[in-house]
Each structure stands twice: as C-alpha cells, then as structure tokens.
Write a structure and sequence with these properties.
Largest sheet: 9 strands, antiparallel
Oligomer: single chain
Strand content: 35-45%
Distance between the termini: 67 Å
Shape: globular
Strand order of the largest sheet: 6-7-8-9-21-18-17-12-15
Number of helices: 2
Order of helices and strands: EEEEEEEHEEEEEEEEEEEEHEE
C-alpha cells in the first residue's frame, strides 16, 4: 500500500445561516413571521389585517386599539386593514351601493397561501434571509353570502406582506376573473404608532390638492397648502394624484417613510378627542394622541378592471 505523505484536509462545514421563522397561532387565527434580526410581523387572517409590526429593537410601529375586536366579529380598529372594493360609505345607484363602508375585504377571513424568503449577506455573521413574504388570498368563493349578494362579481385578491429589516411592504393584486368589467377602489388603512400627535408633521403632500372631510359645511375641495401637515384638531383629508415620498416626522425627526406603487391617493386621518369618544372600539381614551393614519390608496375615483385583467399596487413603509 502506498502511503500518502499529505492527507486531504477535512472540508470545513459552515454553520447554518439564520432564517426567518413563520408560525401559525394555536387557534389558526393569525400568522407570525420573525426575521433573524428580530423584526416581526403578525397578521390576523380575519381581514388579512396586519395587527403588529415591530422593528429589530422591539419598537412597535403600528397603533392597535386596546378595544379592537380580534375575534372576527367586526373589522379591526388599528394595524393595516385592507379596504376593497370601495372606500368610505357606499354610493346609492353604484354597483357597490349595497356594500358596507370600506367594503368586505377587511371583514372576510382570508386564506394563508404560504411564505417565501430572499437571501442576503447583509445580516451579521453568516448572513441569512433578509426578508420573508407572506401571501394571502380572497375570492368570491370564500366571502360570505351577504357580501357575495351585495357585490356579485368574480374576482381574486392576492395580498402579499413582505417583512425586511426596518421595512414592511404590502401589495395587493386584484384580478377580474369574469368576462365583464367592474369598478373598484382600494386602500391600505395604515395606523402608524407615534408618541405625541401634537409633535407630528407629515411632508410630501405640500403641493397636492385635497378633499377636506371635516370642514364646516361638509366635504370641500381645498387647494395645496404649500406646507407640511400638522395636527391641532380632527383631521380627515383625501389627497389625490401624488407620487412623492411621504415622511412622518415627530419632534422634527423622521419616524416613517412611505413610498407607493400605483397608489396615487393618500388619506391622512386623526380622530382627535371628540370623534374618538364616539367610537366604541377605540381605546385607550387618549389613544388618538398616539396614532396617525397615513393611508395609501386609489380612491379619488373609480378604477375599471376589464374581464381577465389584473391590477397591482403597493406601499413600502420604512421605520426610521
């Protein structure tokens, strides 16, 4: 036998890189995803509502009312409810006229379709997955009979929620699976958590006209203010046709950045004290001080989706 003077060295085995963890609650009511960094998102299957989004340091980025119904009995007050196929109160005579306010997506139980992840070497140590995407689905076959009779159309919604380090991306694909066209609106009703509304300002909409829904005499079209939005009373404005990045600042320091894809409209809302008192599912009593809604959507007019077509839009929120 010939002896080798040099034996091959052992091939080093690298430790497995950390990966995102996805779990389903014991009662199958919610899906939770956590990145190796500690970033975390929790989604209630009822409404496919994001009810919590935490940064790696554990800081909560979304406001959730402590009186919110999480049992599927009514839409969630807080987080990111999905509004479809109409925004606001129904309009008599329109095909959505028999639906409840904000439609049925936020009050339907969605299907969890699964997860996917993307790899990156940017994480500490050996890298690992930089993001995880959760997909949810809704169609005419799984909404309740009341909603189906009020809006008798064939459709498919695919809602994707992507968690990455310091960011949350939500996108909605709307498919018309019948031969005839139908109208719809869509919006992400995002409740951002802040510390003190009196110290908050919102920039990026200074040059955009808006509909003021709380002005005396009823909703009124208003021209661009040329200045940042600040809060001293109830605020409910629908800004239309804007493509600029929106920044939410607190004490003049950037807190959130919102970028949008195919969503030209933005609703900015805070109920203030009196309106909050009138909402049975809003709490704590002074919770309005700790929230501001910056809602990306397409609600200024109806979008028409032809039979067989698909529309997609989304928002990317960065916690700063």
């Amino acid at each position: 036998m010939v002896e080798r003077t040099k034996k091959p060295s052992a091939i080093p085995v690298s430790p497995l890189a950390p990966t995102p963890q996805v779990s389903i609650s014991d009662d199958s009511s919610r899906v939770i995803a956590t990145l190796p960094t500690g970033d975390r998102v929790e989604v209630l299957l009822y409404g496919a509502t994001v009810i919590s989004w935490k940064s790696a340091n554990g800081k909560e980025n979304l406001f959730l009312s402590d009186k919110a119904h999480l049992d599927g009995s009514k839409p969630v007050r807080g987080g990111i409810p999905v509004v479809f196929p109409l925004f606001g109160a129904p309009t008599a005579g329109h095909e959505t006229g028999k639906l409840p306010q904000h439609g049925f997506a936020r009050s339907s139980r969605w299907e969890y379709l699964g997860k996917s992840s993307s790899e990156s070497s940017s994480l500490p140590g050996n890298g690992g997955d930089a993001s995880v995407k959760l997909d949810f689905g809704l169609s005419e076959g799984i909404i309740d009979s009341k909603a189906r009779s009020a809006w008798n159309h064939q459709f498919g919604l695919t809602y994707s929620i992507t968690l990455s380090t310091g960011e949350l991306y939500t996108s909605l694909a709307v498919s018309n699976t019948e031969s005839s066209a139908w109208d719809f609106q869509v919006l992400f009703h995002t409740y951002l958590k802040i510390d003190d509304i009196s110290k908050v300002s919102v920039t990026g909409l200074e040059e955009t006209a808006y509909l003021d829904k709380v002005v005396a005499g009823g909703p009124k079209e208003s021209s661009a203010t040329k200045k940042a939005i600040t809060f001293t009373q109830e605020t409910d404005r629908v800004y239309t046709k804007s493509d600029k990045t929106i920044t939410v600042l607190e004490s003049d320091e950037p807190r959130f950045e919102v970028k949008r894809d195919a969503l030209a409209d933005v609703v900015v809302w805070n109920p203030w004290s009196e309106k909050a008192k009138g909402m049975a599912d809003f709490g704590p009593a002074d919770g309005w001080k700790s929230m501001v809604c910056v809602e990306a959507g397409s609600v200024g007019q109806w979008m028409t989706l032809e039979g067989g077509d698909t529309w997609e839009g989304g928002q990317r929120i960065k916690a700063l």
